[in-house]
Amino acid sequence: MPEPYWPKFWKKNAFTLVDAGKQNFLVKVSCRYCKRARLFETADLVETFGDMEVDHLAEKLRRCNGCKKTHTLQVGVLLRTESEAATLIRRRLVKRRPVWRDER
Ligand SMILES: [Zn+2]
User: Fold this and answer.
1) Cα separations (Å) of 70 from 80, 87, 99?
2) Are 25 and 79 in contact (CB under 8 A)?
3) Are 26 and 89 in contact, with CB atoms under 8 Å apart?
4) Environment class of residue 71 by beta-carbon count within 10 Å: exposed (0-12), middle (13-18) or buried (19+)?
5) Which of the two residues, 13 and 71, has the higher pLDDT score?
6) What confidence tens digit (pLDDT) does each residue in 56-88 have?
7) 83 CA from centroid of ligand 1 (Å)
């Protein structure tokens, strides 16, 4: 399996979900244990977690939906135009849970 493509500027700046979306990247989340891989639209992830560094996404996702193990997920980005992007299953956000906040 080819490694996810990491932009060259990765180490220099925080690379966030919004940045990735602007540059036509999809987020690939794969499990080291069961090898399950899914592609996410950056917009769906922003909707769920807010804009954050792609690097920190694995901590948010936590558990693999396939084997249910924790700490096995690795997150990378893939250009929408790469051939691998066409072969992977996409996981789309179907419904957003409302988040409520008390204010005075
Ligand atoms: Zn797994």
Assistant:
1) 27, 25, 25
2) yes
3) no
4) exposed
5) 71
6) 999 899 899 999 999 999 999 999 999 999 999
7) 23
